[in-house]
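Reagents: none. Just compute today. Major facilitator superfamily (MFS) profile domain-containing protein.
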Amino acid sequence: MGIGFLGVGFLGTVTSWVLISFFGRRTIYSTGLASLAVILFIIGILDCVPNYEQRPSVIWAQSSMMVIWNFAYNLSVGPVCFVILCECSATKLRGKTIAIATAVQAMFGIVMTVAIPYMINPDAGNMRGKLGFFFGSLATFCFVWTYFRVPETKGRTYEELDIMFEKNVPTRSFKGYKIV
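Predicted 3D structure written out:
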């Protein structure tokens, strides 16, 4: 299952390269977050089925949903976040912005790498698939934040983006904004 999980993730990432040329970054990112939230809530709900341990079909359904989640993540949020990060940072501060974002991501990655086994472990948190509720809530929060704060950068030059940020154009208006 592990190799299949990685293969599906790789396929999602490669497919995202094609997707990004046809759809906007904001569209892919927000649709991906919404999809991830739904999948995570389904995983959490499946964990609440009575007599969970005696129902292998429910456990297989959860495992399958994790594979689908991995594909959806690598198709959307995973690679597109780096595109948005690079395109939205100010030209003069781009290197520093990317460095800070990468450091913060690594820090949270370390925290989650340590915390998740304790949250899943039957001798500790014993949350199992109910972690889907936790991460689904985080994805929902990020979706709302994305709706208000992430601009559409497809088809824009760095100069145009800098001008729109200087003029305080609302991020939801970036797609149709005409630069005079």
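The helical segments are 2-22, 25-47, 56-75, 77-88, 94-120, 131-149, 158-166.
Action item: order primers for follow-up constructs.
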